[in-house]
Amino acid sequence: MKRVSIKDVALKAGVSIASVSYVLNNKINSRIPQETIDKVKLAAEELNYRPNNIAKSLKTQRTHIIGLVVADIANPYFSQLARIIEDEANQLGYTLLIGSSDENVEKFEALINMFADRQADGLIIAPVENSEKCLLKLQKQKIPFVLIDRYIPEIEADSIQINNHDISQKVTEHLIKEGFKNILLVAYKTELQHLLERTQGFVNGLKKHQLQINDNQILLVDKDYIDRDIYKGLDTTLNTSQRPDAVFFTSNKLAVSGLKKLTQLGLNIPNDIAVAAFDETEAYELFPIPLTFVKQPLLNIGTIAVQMLHKKINTKTTPLQNVILHAELHIGISSKKRLP
Amino acid sequence: MKRVSIKDVALKAGVSIASVSYVLNNKINSRIPQETIDKVKLAAEELNYRPNNIAKSLKTQRTHIIGLVVADIANPYFSQLARIIEDEANQLGYTLLIGSSDENVEKFEALINMFADRQADGLIIAPVENSEKCLLKLQKQKIPFVLIDRYIPEIEADSIQINNHDISQKVTEHLIKEGFKNILLVAYKTELQHLLERTQGFVNGLKKHQLQINDNQILLVDKDYIDRDIYKGLDTTLNTSQRPDAVFFTSNKLAVSGLKKLTQLGLNIPNDIAVAAFDETEAYELFPIPLTFVKQPLLNIGTIAVQMLHKKINTKTTPLQNVILHAELHIGISSKKRLP
DNA sequence: TCACTTTGCTTAAACGTTTAATCGAAATAA
DNA sequence: TTATTTCGATTAAACGTTTAAGCAAAGTGA
């Protein structure tokens, strides 16, 4: 039982395949009378015709596919974002292809190549470290893309970011205003710009309030050994004379790992140690007390990303756009100073 | 700057396009001498030739695309599973297309149609309620698929399930053995077979131990109003004379919502009320005490699903397979009887 | 009436592959 | 030498569309 093609419809309607194509695509320069239109549509209906997208794509050079490259689709941050992007993409007639890079350049490049080979109309990308050449190649190939979550200073590309520096400084100042003197920052060992900005925001927050920064006030964590590094780091730092009275985790995964450890240590939050975290995840909801966290505007990030990409796909020359969205600080109990 | 095609390679290598195709696909009936092979490969390399998958698909009727239909990619259960499936699919040379149905038949059917229109080689499907006709249609179209997580008794299809009934009965009996007398089951208001089996396992667990089941011992929740129904349900049931001393949540979302509520009510777990949950999610890790939960073999579900599908795609006549995998009961503190 | 435009529709090339069929030259066999 | 086989490669059709170009018939204006 073969698929029914435009040819079969043409035969049944008693017209040429060109006419069928024109009718079915509404490419009617007012040269096709209603009668023919009806004939064709009826035939298509009766044969239950479904257009062959592959043939269509071969001819039109459009696939109506958008590729999404995230670090890990199993990470709630990215899966929530992916869901938003999926909906918006479908809305605009695209199908979404998703790939996880694991923060690994080789995998990243393989994904990009795969999407390029599949001739995705455009890409939404959370770039990894050292992906500059790969992105440059993409630009050379004239495949439209927009960067999300992260951005690469060396690359002039459309992007959607959040105010990483400012919101981090805000978190820091919030903790300072609450009266915490010795805040520990837990961050990734990374060169990713958006994460460096979070650290910089922290540093500038301290500076602004004339607080000195000592060396072990920033705990750097290897992304591949989060639990190990955080457990060890917290163990040692909590035993120093300069024991921190607050911790600021700069990602959801760091926060989850850190909170587990603090709980295991039997520390009361915020009485023994205050906590602020980045991102929002279901996990925070089960923490015994409401957490203070930075809420990213995921809905905006996702929908704007798709819309920007859509525009780029359809009009070759769009001016470069670097959108900066604002994250919100949600203040819970975890960052409240204990009453003396 | 046009894409380089097989034609360009042929020209550069000084051979016909057929030869190029044969060489590049290793379709060599030992009729092509090494010299030509080298020539072609060199030319392809130098021109940086990338095959056009669309043209390839048009000709071969294979897309090397697998479609995955889940209820919601933002649900950790599905995003974890999706990640596993993505990796295994890539391993076998497929690209993964993901769609979320929101447990809605119309969206479900739209997704299936979209994947069919894109001529996915096969589908991995978590079917929704009332999707029978849609799945039958898929069978008629001879598109290979395997069902995961759920299954539809009316449809004879390949599937991968877990032992929902038995593991639920095991959870129930575990609670009974711990000494809990009045266990509340929190379940979805649904006809989905795998969820009914969880309830049935609970009922049979009680029966086996000669415990009677009274009406308000099962709290049915509308999936679209989880928080509302659970909050109200727990409020009322906790105020009855037959106050439950343990709760068994039959999904991760139900558990997260319920645990939030129990915490808000200031109840101590397990001293005031014991808890067991289904599925595994990051959120459980931040709950103050280790939870008792049912751990599904996600890695096996995902990899076996892809492998089964792969086999079905490549050999038209594979016997129907209904794999049943075993979930594990992880016993934490949340289901421990308080010492009297 | 004739020239020209409009209308309605068709023809045919093209998109980039795969692959069966074919073909000439060289090698082997008779 | 001639017939046959093998080797190495090519030709051309096909996959299912889109779309520029073309064409016959009808309509219009002078």
TrEMBL record, chains A, B:
It comes from the Bacteria. Gene3D superfamilies: 3.40.50.2300, lambda repressor-like DNA-binding domains. InterPro entries: HTH_LacI, Lambda_DNA-bd_dom_sf, Peripla_BP/Lac1_sug-bd_dom, Peripla_BP_I. Residues 4-60 form the HTH lacI-type domain. One of its GO terms (molecular function) is DNA binding. SUPFAM superfamilies: lambda repressor-like DNA-binding domains (SSF47413), Periplasmic binding protein-like I (SSF53822). Keywords: DNA-binding, Transcription, Transcription regulation. It holds the Pfam family Peripla_BP_1. This is LacI family DNA-binding transcriptional regulator.
